Predict the structure.
Amino acid sequence: MVIAENDSVILYIDEDNISLVKLKSDGSITNKKGIFLHKNIIGKEYGSKIYDTLSRNFIFVLKKTPELIATSLKKKTQTLYEHDISFICLLCNALPNKKIIEAGTGTGCLTYALANCVLPHGVVHTFEYNEERYTEVKKEFEDFEDVINNIKFYHKDIINYNFEDFKNNEIDAIFLDMPNPWLCVEKAKNVLKERGTFVIFLPCIEQVYKIIETLEEHNFCDIAAYELINNSWKFILINNQKKKNNLNKLENSSTNQSAPLNDNSPQNLNMAYRLCHKENKTHTGYLIVSKKWLDDEHQQMEIEFKGLINPPEIHKHD
């Protein structure tokens, strides 16, 4: 696919340096690799190497994906990581044409991922109370032509919001990332469909106890808790024999001048790999997931009796 002017692309230096850029014919970007002109990117295909103005270093131009978007967006608030985002999309049952409420928007990483999941006709309603973040994220999403029509931004504090813009039983899933989500459970419940999913992200275990009590008070069922832990590994190439082989060749060069001194072919190198932990945060937080109880209690009990739903027992700790 050929890249055109005004396209938003990912410029990839390495896994820690990824940026999202909207291309202009007279634009440029400067990073640790050098100065890169937009006109040298326009007309290329995704995956191409792009060289700097001095033709010394290069970067890759890639197509947008939810994972790369999450990495490239500015991290001005505590953000969810890629493995968190994928699990949240799964728990929210984010499928095509679903309607989902998210609060708060934050950096927009999860917003973009959810919007991709509900294409082509679904909608993500995302709430952000902080005016600066709301304005910044809304402006950034103007460049996301693929999902912008599937997102509605609200500059509102969802705790004091009465959900007057929604009908009862309209929303398929609600996701909350806020310090006191128990304050809006009662009002949010009304717009959630029967058997709709309520997912809450919380960093502290004390908050988990409180939200579980609130969900039980409002007759939510199938309550479960998950701890999000990132335990990533990396591979390091070990080549212990390379130096030894080169020294042996130097010693033999006086008797065999035809032997190449820089023969690095695989058969002459004893390669191995070592596995080690990456330096990353291990604990992100907790996810609490629950379902809205059916209004028809007889039908709800019948579903549970048939074994289609197995709500776990919630143990309360003093």
